[in-house]
C-alpha cells in the first residue's frame, strides 16, 4: 500500500535545511500524522534511537488541541516543553533573544521567564498582511534586525517567509536574527 509509506520530504523544522549528515542526521517523527523532521543537533537529541523516534509532542500523548506554542500562533513544527509545563517551538526559542534553554545540550526545558512583557504586546505585521488579524497579537514577536526598523513579527511567520538568518555574533557565536521583507530584500 503506497499510501502508508511516510514521505521523507521537507527539511528540518528548525533550520529548514533538507540535508542530513552522518554526524547530524535528519530524524523523522514516527507519530501518527506527525510531519516533524529535525536534525539531531537542532532538536537536542543526545542519541538517535535505532527504532522509532517520537518528537516531544507525540511522546507526551497530550491532546493536540492543547499543544500550542506560547511564542507564536502556529501549532505545527518541532515543539518542546517550557519550564511552566507549556510548549514552545525550538525555532521560536532560538530567535527570541531572551529565551533560554534549561539544558543547552538537550535544548529543554525552554525558559520564558526572561522574555520582557513588551514582546508579547507587539503585533505581527506578517499576520496582519496575510489576513490573520486574529493571530497577529498572539505570542511574542521579534523585531527586524535593521537598525531603526520597528517592524515586528512571529519567528515562525518569518521562517515561512524565508526572512530568518544566522549572522556572525561575538566570540564565534551565531546570532539568530530576522528582517522584515523590505530590509531582507536589501541584504
Automatic annotation (TrEMBL):
Keywords for this protein: Metal-binding, Nucleus, Phosphoprotein, Repeat, Zinc, Zinc-finger
GO terms, molecular function: histone binding; nucleosome binding; zinc ion binding
Protein name, entry field: PHD-type domain-containing protein
SUPFAM superfamilies reported in the protein's UniProt record: FYVE/PHD zinc finger (SSF57903)
Listed GO biological process terms: regulation of DNA-templated transcription
InterPro entries according to UniProt: AF10/AF17_PHD, EPHD, Histone_Mod_Regulator, Zinc_finger_PHD-type_CS, Znf_FYVE_PHD, Znf_PHD, Znf_PHD-finger, Znf_RING/FYVE/PHD
Top-level taxonomic group: Eukaryota
Regions crossing the membrane: none
GO cellular component, one term: nucleus
Keyword Zinc: yes
Subcellular location as annotated: Nucleus
Predominant location category: nucleus
One protein family per Pfam: PHD_2
Domain annotation PHD-type: ranges: 9-61, 66-184, 121-183
Amino acid at each position: 500500500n503506497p499510501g502508508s509509506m511516510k514521505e521523507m520530504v521537507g527539511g528540518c523544522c528548525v533550520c529548514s535545511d533538507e540535508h542530513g549528515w552522518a554526524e547530524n542526521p535528519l530524524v523523522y517523527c514516527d507519530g501518527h500524522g506527525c510531519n516533524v523532521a529535525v536534525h539531531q543537533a537542532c532538536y537536542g537529541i543526545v542519541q538517535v534511537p535505532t527504532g522509532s523516534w517520537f518528537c516531544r509532542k507525540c511522546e507526551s500523548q497530550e491532546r493536540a488541541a492543547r499543544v500550542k506554542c506560547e511564542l507564536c500562533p502556529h501549532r505545527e513544527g518541532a515543539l518542546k516543553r517550557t519550564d511552566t509545563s507549556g510548549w514552545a517551538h525550538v525555532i521560536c526559542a532560538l530567535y527570541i533573544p531572551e529565551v533560554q534553554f534549561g539544558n543547552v545540550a538537550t535544548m529543554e526545558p525552554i525558559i520564558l521567564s526572561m522574555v520582557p512583557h513588551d514582546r508579547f504586546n507587539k503585533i505581527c505585521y506578517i499576520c496582519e498582511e496575510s489576513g490573520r488579524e486574529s493571530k497577529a497579537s498572539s505570542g511574542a514577536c521579534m523585531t527586524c534586525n535593521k537598525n531603526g526598523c520597528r517592524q515586528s513579527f512571529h519567528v515562525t511567520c518569518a521562517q515561512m517567509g524565508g526572512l530568518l538568518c544566522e549572522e556572525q555574533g561575538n566570540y564565534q557565536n551565531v546570532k539568530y536574527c530576522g528582517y522584515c521583507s523590505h530590509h531582507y530584500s536589501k541584504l
